[in-house]
Design brief:
By secondary structure, the chain is mainly beta. Helix content is 10%, strand content 48%.
Length: 388
């Protein structure tokens, strides 16, 4: 559908000069702008000396206008606020705009933005002496700011282009991820002692509005003279929305190197989920299971003869790691959240083969029974996005 008649109508709004703020940040919660439409919009705004930017310098917040695009029903809603989160203006752009061309999307959005910025606060009520205005309504919470991560495991949703995401567990493990594009991110992390170091590229393939597939890798490297490497290649499937979703994934973990005398490899499965309890509180769980064979050595000492007999065997081992808890999203800045809960480490061994299962006669190196270790878990995450 051609939108030229709308453009002609809105062109009449261009007679007033733009305001002093020369920077504009757009929080596109409706996934409305693709790269082509965004580039076209940036060019049009640039002709009016208004720069479209993804990153915010908080020391100069009042140099910016903050635009938010969201869906209300099937319609696109535009809201523009200033540096103190006061609404400068808003517009309902309808539903037809979603089917427009990239150039038409940029054109109509450009006219809507500049109309508000040229005459901001025109619909804001004026205080009458002796009365008080109603407090400014805060922007709605957006738990989707954290949709790309659970406690540590990734979902199939990706960061948007230019977004930086910081995540820590126990303030011991530190992890950062950066959106190279809307579908590709690159991250890295390490512990506070710098051991080990890892890289995590991930590419996402959106299936529809409710599901996505991702392919990623985690390359681990020993540091400070430690000679070992590890690699986890994985694929995940996520289904749900920005507030509640689950992820199922699988991968193959391989370790080796001089510091690991017996290199090993094993499949790893993961199931994670996020569920909304309230606007600021979310249930979160992350679960891993891995299967492997462990080489065990056994000794049988014959006191009457004064010597020992040695044997070895493979023992099936199942490793289970569960994290369960809650995500608390900051009420004033939803790009921040805390995660608190419990983790459980379980090691379940298979049956020791005969004759080594006679523990009165044989001593076996290492554990062969099942154990569960509960450990409190605390984490913090912060996204450096277009909003802040």
């Amino acid at each position: 559908m051609k939108l030229s008649y709308l453009a002609l109508t809105l062109a009449l709004l261009l007679s007033a000069p733009l305001s002093a703020q020369k920077l504009l940040s757009i929080d596109d919660r409706a996934a409305f702008l693709n790269d082509s439409a965004e580039a076209n919009l940036a060019t049009r705004l640039g002709n009016d000396s208004l720069s479209l930017t993804r990153m915010i310098d908080n020391r100069k917040r009042c140099d910016y206008w903050f635009a938010r695009l969201s869906k209300t029903g099937n319609d696109l809603q535009l809201i523009i606020t200033d540096c103190i989160d006061k609404t400068a203006g808003s517009k309902n752009l309808g539903s037809v705009i979603f089917s427009a061309t990239d150039q038409e999307k940029a054109l109509l959005l450009y006219y809507s933005i500049t109309e508000i910025i040229r005459n901001p606060y025109k619909d804001v009520p004026v205080a009458i002496p002796g009365t008080a205005l109603q407090p400014e309504t805060l922007p709605p919470i957006d738990p989707g700011q954290h949709r790309s991560r659970y406690f540590f495991a990734p979902s199939s949703y990706n960061l948007e282009k230019g977004e930086l995401y910081y995540n820590t567990l126990y303030f011991f493990l530190h992890d950062v991820q950066y959106g190279i594009s809307n579908d590709f991110s690159l991250g890295m992390g390490t512990s506070i002692i710098g051991f080990p170091f890892y890289l995590t590229p991930k590419v996402s393939f959106p299936v529809n509005e409710k599901s996505s597939i991702a392919l990623g890798d985690m390359l681990m490297i020993g540091t400070y003279g430690s000679k070992f490497t590890g690699n986890l290649l994985y694929i995940t499937y996520t289904r749900g929305n920005r507030t509640s979703h689950f992820t199922a994934g699988g991968g193959y973990l391989a370790f080796g190197g001089r510091e690991i005398s017996n290199g090993f490899d094993a499949p790893v499965l993961n199931i994670s989920a996020l569920g909304r309890i309230s606007d600021h509180i979310y249930f979160i769980t992350e679960n891993y299971i891995s299967f492997s064979k462990q080489r065990k050595t056994a000794w049988n000492y014959d006191y009457s003869k004064g010597y020992s007999t040695e044997g070895s065997f493979d023992l099936n081992a199942t490793f289970i790691y569960n994290l369960i808890g809650f995500r608390f999203i900051n009420k004033s800045k939803d790009v921040r959240c805390w995660q608190i809960g419990l983790s459980f480490i379980s090691m379940i061994y298979g049956e020791v083969p005969s004759p080594y299962n006679n523990h009165n006669a044989w001593s076996i190196d290492g554990p062969t029974g099942s154990d569960v270790f509960p450990i409190p878990v605390i984490g913090y995450a912060r996204k450096f996005s277009t909003r802040y």
